[in-house]
Structure formats: C-alpha cells, structure tokens
Amino acid sequence: MAAFDYAQNLYDVALKPRILRSLINEHIPEEKQQLRNSLAFEHVVSAIRTHQLLSERVVQSVDDKKTIEKWKSAVDFWIDRVLMLVSSNMPVKCWAGICLLGVTCEGCSSERFLASYSVWLQKLLSHLQASAGSSFVKLACCVSISDLLTRLSGFPNMKRDGSSHAAKLIQPVLKLIQEDSSDAEGPVNLLCTVLTSFPSSLQKNSDSAEAAIVTKLMSGRCNTNMVKKLALCLSLLPKSRGDADSWSLMIQKVLIAINVLLNDSFQGLEEETKTMRALVPLGKDPPTPLGGLPIFDISNKSTRLERLSMASISSLMLCCSTMLTTSYPAQAKVPIQLLLMLVERVLMVDGSLTQTLYPTITAMQQEYVCLELPVQHSYCLDILCAIVKEARSQLLPHAAHIIQTVTEYLRKCELPGLRVKLYALIKLMLLSMGVGLSLYLAEDVVNNASIDLDSVGDRGGEARSNSESMQKKRKHEMAVMSFENQAQTNYLPKNPVPISVKIAALEALETLLTVGGASGSNSWRSSVDSLVITVATDACKGGWIKPANDFNNSQNSSSDWADFQLASLRALLASLLSPGRIRPPYLAHGLELYRKGKQETGTKLAEFCAHALMALEVLIHPRTIPLIDFGSSIEYPVSGVKNRFMENYTYSGAQKHNVFPGGTSRNEPENPESEDDDLYEKWVKDSDGNQPPVTEQENNETPPQLAEKVVSISSGAEVIPENKGKGILVETQSVKEANKPPEILIQTVDFRASDNMVTCDPETEGKAPVSSSVGGMEFKFDLGDNDDPMDEIPDIVDVEPDSDEE
User: Fold this and answer.
1) 545 C-beta neighbours (distance < 10 Å), count
2) Comparing C-alpha atoms, which of 605, 490, 503 is closest to residue 544?
3) CA quadruple 667, 671, 672, 673: dihedral, nearest 10
4) CA torsion 285→291→293→294, rounded to 10°?
5) CB 438 within 8 A of CB 513
6) Is 508:427 a contact under the CB 8 Å cutoff?
7) 178-181: long-range contacts, CB 8 A cutoff, minimum separation 24
8) What is the pLDDT of residues 556-607, one digit of tens each?
9) How far apart are CA 163 and CA 155, in angstroms?
10) pLDDT by residue (tens digit) across 502-553?
C-alpha cells in the first residue's frame, strides 16, 4: 500500500516525515556501520533546511493528529541517530554527529529545543573538554555550541540559564585559543558568540580573556581573517562588565599600545611627537598594559629593541577601528582628540627619512616599514570613517583638524586603493557635516579629481583617433567604424588611473555638487560643470558598453567601464540639478546623452537615464501649477454655492475678474485645470505677435473690444486702500450705485502697448481716485496726494514665460 500512498503536492505535511526517514535510512549510518560518504551530508543538511523537516510546524486540527504523530516519531528517530553518532568513538562519525546536532539546534521546534538543549550542550561540552580529542572534532563542537547559544539567546526568559551554561565554556575556550597547535578560529567565534549573547558570563574571567586574545593577536602567526576575528573579540570584551568606564579603559590601553610600538618603528621617519603626553596626562598614573604584557608598559625601557613588528601595530589599529563601529550597551565617551592625533601621526609618515646628519634607521628597517605602511594608512582611514559616521555633526569642533589632515594626505596619496577610500571618506564628511565643510574641501577635491579624470576618454578617444587615421590611410574608404571593430581596438591610456579611482572621484564630485553646489557659484562651480560634461561625453563616445562584453584590458573590465559610465551620468545629473545663479549651460547636451542611454533597455544605465529625464522635466518645461485644486479638494453642501464660488473666483476672462491675476499671463482660459496643457501654444502665439491669448468668451463679448482694461477716474468717492497682491485693491459692492448710470470720465489704456502699465497721465493734477466698474463691481485705486510718490503703486508687468526681462 505504501507504493500507492501518494502525497497531494510538494507542500503536503504528510510528505515531510517520509522524506526525513528516507534521508536517515540512506545517509545516516547506524552504530556498527561505517560512514559511507561524508560529502552526502551536505545533501542531507540542504534538504533539511529547504523542506524544514525538523520544524514540526503543522496546523492543529482533528485530521492532522495522525500526521503529527508520524512527524514527531520521525524527528525522534533523527535525534536518536544523531546522538548515537555524537557518542561514537570513531572521530569521523563523532564529527558528523556533532555537525548534524548543530543543524538540529537551528531547525527543530521551540518546544523540543527548550526541552533538550541542556542535554545536547552536555554532550558537546564533554568533547570540548577532552584533552585527547582530535582538533577537528573540537572545532565542530565550537560551531555547534555557537549555534545552540544563538538559538537560546532568542528566548528572553532564558537569559539567566543561558549565562550559567555559557560560563562553563569560558575556560575550555580560552585554553583552545592559547594552544599553538590548534585552530583558534572556532574558539574565537564561540567566544564572540558568548560576548554577544550572554556577556555577563565572562565577567569573572575578563582579564584572562584579554590576555589570551592579545597574546594570540601579537603572536604574528595569524592570517588576515583570524586577525579580524580577534580584533572583534577584543572590541566586544568590555561588554562583559557593561559600564562606560570599561570601554574607555580598553580603548585607552589600545591607543597606548599602538603609540608605544610606533615610537620604535617610526624612529628616524618622523619628527618628535607629543602623543604620549596626551595619552597619559601629568599627575595621573597610566593604566595597566594591554593584556598584561610588559612590552606595552611605558616605563619599561629594556624591551624596546625587542618589540614586535609593524604587523602588530596594524592588528591593534584594526581593534581600535572595530571598537568604534561595534555597538555597546552603555553610552561611552570617545577620545576623539587622541584618535585624531594617532591618525595624523600615521598618515603623515610616507617612509622618507627626516633631515638629520646621521640616519637612525637602516635601509632594511625602512623597507619593512614601507611594506606595512599602506595597511596602516588604510586602517587610519577606517578610523576616520568610523569617527565621522558615529559623531556626525558633533564633530564640528574638530573639523579644522580633520580637514587639514585629509587635504594634506590627499595631495601625497598615490596608491589607488587608498585614494578610493579617501574619496569615500570625503563623501561621508560632506554628507555628515554639511555645506560649511565644502567651502574648505572643494578646491582640493576638484583639483585632485581633475587629475584623476584627466584621461577619461581612453576608450572613446583612442578608438576615435585610430578610426580617423585609418580613414586617412584608406582615403575615406570606410566612413564609420563599427562598434564591433572598436571593441577589438587595443587602447593605450595616456594616464593609467584605474577605473575604481575615477568612479570614486566622480562620486565625490557628485556629493560636492549636491551638498555645496550653490556655494561654489563664484569659484569652482563652472570648472566642475565643464569637467563633468566632458567626462560624461568622453565616457560614452565608444558606445554603451554592456557588462557581458569583454575588452582587451587587463585592469578595467567591461563591467567596471559600465559602472564608470553610470557614475559619470550621475555626476552630470547632480551638475544639472544643483542650484546656481544661471541656468545649466550644458542642459541640451546632457539631455541628448540621457536620451541615448535610455535606449539601452535592460541595463542599470537605462533605468538611471529614464530617472534623469524625469528629474530634468522641471527644467525642460517650467510651469506654475496651482497649489489647490478648487474643483476636487473643496466640498460644498449645496451645489449652487460651489457654482457661484467658481464663477466669481476663477480666472474666466477679462470681464469677470475681481482680482488681477498674478501669474505669467493676464488672460487665462476658462478652465485652468484642463488636462490639455496649451502653455506651449500660448508661448508660440505670444512670441509671434506679442499678443496675449484671447479666450472664446472675450471673442463673443463686444464691450469693451480687444479685452482692453477699463480704468475709470471719478471724484468725490470714498476710498479705502487695501493691499491686494501687486496693487492697492479695494472691492466695494453697492446695489444703489450699481443701478445708477455712471457719471464718470472713462479713459482706456491698452496694456499691450508697452511692458509697463501707465495708470494715468503723469501730468494730471488732482487727487482723484482711479476706479474700474465691471459687472456691478467697482475697483478704486487711490492715487494719493501730489506729495505722495507715484512708485507706491507697483507696475503691472506682462512678461512672457521665457523672457529674461524683469
């Protein structure tokens, strides 16, 4: 019957216990069987994680009781087989069982884990404490215990029990770290897990843990990955005490240790420094040496010639950088001034000898220092990035010190990797400390970026020159060189600057334009705009290169060149959108580049070009759109009220205006919210005859003709001045006066005769007000006494949208 017991589909719960039993029977050996193939365990682990075979997660219903029992029985069978492997005397089977037990800790249900984790931990701890056990079995124990503690830390009510269990692991783990023959990566990872999940378990053994970590770090027998792990573990060590003083004391020890080693290593390569005086102020005792090692004792003079190598300095600087980027439960005070002094001390050393009569360092020592200096410079830039990222605007009191250090190092730094990191630091500084910083960094950033971007068009320029020479030799036999032929051309760059450096320089320029583009209008802005458009044009001359293409360039791949094209277009967009005193001078050229790039469908460059065209729409078609949609945003209880309101207050023609419009045109169409935007057509008509647009209503109405404004001069009327927009406007409404025939002198003024409106003859004498009677409404403008200046009434100017006249 089992042959015809089909499952519903892939997600059928009844299928999971059957798959689990099949995996156990096929790949997990019994007690007397040999391990057939250890590589098959990878397939077992992948199947368990993909199908969640140990989760026992099923909907509780009456029909599923039988399925639940089957699944529970299968998981019990799995755990019994795994524990049997863990207890095996054969190292290979024991290693396999320990690895599968770690997978079980990750994937089993919460109820099963809480009921069984203490038993599993005792099984693993017995192998970890065994003195005669194999090293790879102990390494597997560290990994599985780390998985168990990580899962246990997810239960808030298990913190106390977890700390008590983790405290039993400290001594065996520290013993494994101190052993030279063992692989310390597993124990260090386990110690980091303990410090992250249950830091209080290490409080009593904090000093011994510090000594073991520092001793391993200073041994010089660790690879780069191991050094990073030890640095992270040392940075997490203050969490065991949980107070701010522990963190401050640890970083002070690290800074003292670094400067003590630098005093010997940089002897003869730097001037006298005052860093040590700042680390230990007068009248205060220095703290205990880092890790209790005598080599870091300031008062110890006898061991200075036997101190460790430059690699140890790099390791301690990595610890310092990691401490700044690692979260801490208490708010600690960061010694920013001491860190900046350390960074300045290291970055200013380039390996050159000081001007002395006799050198105090040998040539071999100088070579060894120069070999390690790039690593130390990189860690110093990491420290600066961490300080800027964490302190942000609070770093402004130290901004002058940072700017001086960065600009001076920017002038002397030549290694590509360090220049990329330096540009990233400048970008972070501009974003963190604002536009004020751009005033002091802009000149150096622009000058160095111009040097790095000097030969941007290597591909396009070289291909173009080769094509032109070929055309001359063949007498225009081949008019245009195809893109495929360009791809086969060997390019010889004039300035061998890696693409990564050019991309970093463009990103720094983009950030500079974004943050401080408006502040550089009188100095560097024009040169940066010209540089950016030149770089973007040269980068795209050879065609839009897709990442799949290969070019004959060992340093710069096609994907790097595509990233460079994208970076140049991003910088160009920042140049076009950054505020300035004039309109972007290269807008048309930039739009052409974006339109061509948009055609490369399916690439990141095409997506950005489409975004750039949308962002530049406000520069291509500037419009004044109303802030409020009267037709949709205002609700009226009675429909008649809405109709009367819209009839009185919308711009429906010259005869129904009760206020003078303040837009770009005096006469607007009846429906300003129309979907048909005829703004461009109005501009064309205005430019042809300098005539304002005339609405259909104005064509049907006879008085007054040609939509002329009527200005009435009356006497004896009471005038109440009120400020209404561009003029002094008073709205009075009287039924009796509206019914009376107007006995006034009418004077018509053509607004189209000149750009400025003249309300009356300047030679007219008297104190008569100027009024306009339209549609039962009377508008009065008080001209004032003769002593009042005429410029109190502002002129109403009719200017075309694209006109530069003011």
Assistant:
1) 25
2) 605
3) 180
4) 0
5) no
6) yes
7) 178/212, 178/215, 178/216, 180/219, 180/221, 181/135
8) 566 888 999 999 999 999 999 998 888 899 999 999 999 999 998 889 999 9
9) 12
10) 999 999 999 999 998 888 666 789 999 999 999 999 998 877 765 444 444 4
